[in-house]
Specification:
100 residues; mainly beta; 4-stranded parallel β-sheet; two-stranded parallel sheet; 0% helix
Length: 100
């Protein structure tokens, strides 16, 4: 039937974020300090997805004092008809300045 729950621990590293083929996902949980290099966070058409939980300081440059908002970084959640809750921790997506 496919993966229903995606749980990633702290300090995960990816360059590209793509869960578009995980059509059976019901929940996504991402820990703290993950995915600093990801420039586009997009979730689209996951109709069974109910919850998204993202820890602190994820999808952000670690050194927020020296980093500036980046217009090339974007955040999209589209066409997820069962989505009930989104939790985003402190400083996550801090330097995203593109479409949100």
């Amino acid at each position: 039937m496919g993966m229903k729950h995606l749980k990633l621990t702290d300090n995960c590293v990816l360059v590209d974020w793509d869960v578009s083929l995980m059509l059976n996902l019901e929940s996504i949980e991402i820990g703290n300090d993950c995915f600093e290099s990801v420039k586009t966070f997009q979730i689209e058409g996951l109709n069974r997805l109910k919850t998204i939980k993202i820890g602190n300081n994820s999808f952000s440059i670690r050194s927020i004092i020296t980093s500036r908002p980046n217009v090339s970084k974007s955040f999209h959640i589209l066409n997820c008809e069962s989505l009930e809750s989104i939790q985003i921790g402190q400083i996550s997506f801090w330097d995203f300045a593109g479409e949100f």
